[in-house]
Design goal:
Blueprint: H1 6-15, E1 20-22, H2 29-42, E2 44-49, H3 59-70, E3 73-78, E4 81-85
Parallel strand pairs: 1-2
Antiparallel strand pairs: 2-4, 3-4
Amino acid sequence: MEHQSTTSLKRKAMLLKPSVQIGKKGLSEESIKEIDKQLKKHGLVKVKFLRSSLEQSGRKEMATEIAIRTGARIITKSGFMAVYYRPIKQKII
């Protein structure tokens, strides 16, 4: 998934199921590590914000914080979902 257009990434994101859920603990260090791990593996990650997570802070703030802390780009935010993209670094052999 090297440098793809936002439109093609949005299309791919529609087919994804959320691979990380943010719950009542809010944006914990574990959830950031899991999102980072998923980005390294897949490059494109869908995150679901559960209603219980909103007690900590708003979806918009959490979505932005995830992008900053993981170095990923927000592809789309809709309702309780956000999709992030970060190019997968290719190993040189």
